[in-house]
Task: inverse folding
């Protein structure tokens, strides 16, 4: 179901962008793009129902909570990212997406890390909600493992964000274009 929701998420975005730019149906395209939170809600309901009726938590249940957190925290920016690239590369409209380097890239990445923190808070809230719903430590041990793993990943992501301030991402050398080693 998680995979189906992830596939549905991207299908809805692609259909929304296609409808918006290639069919020039802005409102219908916006309707499709607005369906993405509904997909998250369906995933949350299915996950909760599955555990409520007696299933033991699996990695899939943990990933569902991660997916919901990431989708809510990053959903709007992921759609904007896809929208910008679809508009430029497919519809041949607008300006080329900018490439970030140096301090600008470091700030942008750190803002992304802050979104990761929001995703973490939402996802961990879902995980603890599922743990509370089940009320059986044996059946929810995998969810605790997901919490530990995600905490580690969030810490590593913070170290990467800090590293971009210490060692900024450099712009490609235009004189090196076309040269090989």
Result:
């Amino acid at each position: 179901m998680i995979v189906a929701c992830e596939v549905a998420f991207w299908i809805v975005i692609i259909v929304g962008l296609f409808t918006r730019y290639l069919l020039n149906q802005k409102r219908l395209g916006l309707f499709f793009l607005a369906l993405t939170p509904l997909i998250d809600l369906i995933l949350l309901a299915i996950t909760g129902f599955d555990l409520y009726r007696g299933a033991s938590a699996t990695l899939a249940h943990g990933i569902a909570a991660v997916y919901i957190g990431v989708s809510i925290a990053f959903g709007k920016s992921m759609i904007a990212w896809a929208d910008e690239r679809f508009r430029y590369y497919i519809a041949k409209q607008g300006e080329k997406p900018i490439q970030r380097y140096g301090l600008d890239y470091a700030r942008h990445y750190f803002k992304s890390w802050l979104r990761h923190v929001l995703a973490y808070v939402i996802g961990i809230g879902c995980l603890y909600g599922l743990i509370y719903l089940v009320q059986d430590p044996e059946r929810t041990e995998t969810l605790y493992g997901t919490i530990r793993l995600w905490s580690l990943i969030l810490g590593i992501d913070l170290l990467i964000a800090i590293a971009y301030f210490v060692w900024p991402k450099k712009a490609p050398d235009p004189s090196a274009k076309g040269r090989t080693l």
